[in-house]
Amino acid sequence: MARISGAIAPFAAAVITLSTLAGCGRGGGNAAAGAGNGGSATLAAAPAGQLFPDNFKGVCSGASVSAATAYAPGSKAHKALFFETYKDDFSDHSSSLPADWTVQYSQTSDAFKAIDLVVCAKRTAAKEVKVCDKYKTDGKPSQNKVRWHTATYEVTAWEAKTGKKLAQTTLEATDTDCPMFENFSGDSDTVDDYASPSSAQVADFLRPHVTG
Q1: What pLDDT is recorded for position 77?
Q2: What's the pLDDT score for residue 100?
Q3: How many CB atoms lie within 10 A of CB 18?
Q4: What Rg value do the Cα atoms of the chain yield, rounded?
Q5: What gap in Å lies between CA 59 and CA 180, rounded to an integer?
Q6: Is the dihedral of CA 191, 192, 197, 198 positive or negative?
Q7: Rounded to an integer, what distance in angstroms lies between the CA atom of residue 6 and that of residue 12?
Q8: 67 vs 52: CA distance, rounded Å
Q9: Looking at residue 75, what is its pLDDT?
Q10: What is the 3-state secondary structure (H, E, C) of the chain?
């Protein structure tokens, strides 16, 4: 369950309420559409063998994705995915890339087949800088705490189709602000969390391979 800091708890509650209402609205709309088509509503079938971001995680270790687009350095149509260390795996952070550098899921087309670049930020070191507290659960004080760390990342750009390494650098994530949102399993947990490379840092590293 997500535990949210007191400063933003009212906003979070509003988001949850709106999400629930929006879901109900979509359900009603689908039902009405079905009734207008003889009581049957169908969804377009996803393409067979459709790719998803998780299919590209292995590229961070030099694996290849044969169905991806071949990387052509002179092309102006490069598309990338961005993964960052999360626990013992990588998590998709592609939404932090400029919108025209990546793709969005599509139910009717194999959008991720256009990916030709994968950039991966692997956390290699971390330093605890503070303990964050005063988190609230449902607006009520809790004993939850976050051990916040600055971190060092090894950032690598790969060709998606071949798993060929294109470039590598080291980035320092130095943000010392406590996270406004955090996930806890109870009301008296202490968890570790880490600063991430900024979107600007990642974009600066990747830009020569996307726009060059």
Answers
A1: 83
A2: 95
A3: 10
A4: 21
A5: 32
A6: positive
A7: 10
A8: 11
A9: 85
A10: CEEEEHHHHHHHHHHHHHHHHHHHHHHHHHHHHHHCCCCCCCCCCCCCCCCCHHHHHHHHHCCCCCCCCCCCCCCCCCCEEEEEEECCEEEECHHHCCHHHCCCCCCCCCHHHHCCEEEEEEEEEEEEEEEECCEEECCEECCCEEEEEEEEEEEEEEECCCCCEEEEEEEEECCCCCCCEEECCCCCCEEEEECCCCHHHHHHHHHHHHHC
Dihedral in degrees, nearest 10, Cα atoms 25, 31, 37, 40: 130
Give the count of domains, the chain. 1
189: its two tokens: 């947990």
pLDDT for residue 164 = 97
Which domain, by its residues, includes 176? 2-211
**For every one of its 212 residues, what pLDDT tens digit does the chain have, with 9 covering 90 and above?**
444 443 333 333 333 322 222 333 333 333 333 334 444 343 455 566 899 999 999 999 999 999 999 999 888 889 999 999 998 899 999 999 999 999 999 888 899 999 999 999 999 999 999 999 999 988 899 999 999 999 999 999 999 999 999 999 999 999 999 999 999 999 999 999 999 999 999 999 999 999 86
Name the residue type at position 208: P
- Give the length of the chain: 212
C-beta separation of 123 from 170 below 8 A: no
* C-beta of residue 188 within 8 angstroms of C-beta of residue 145: no
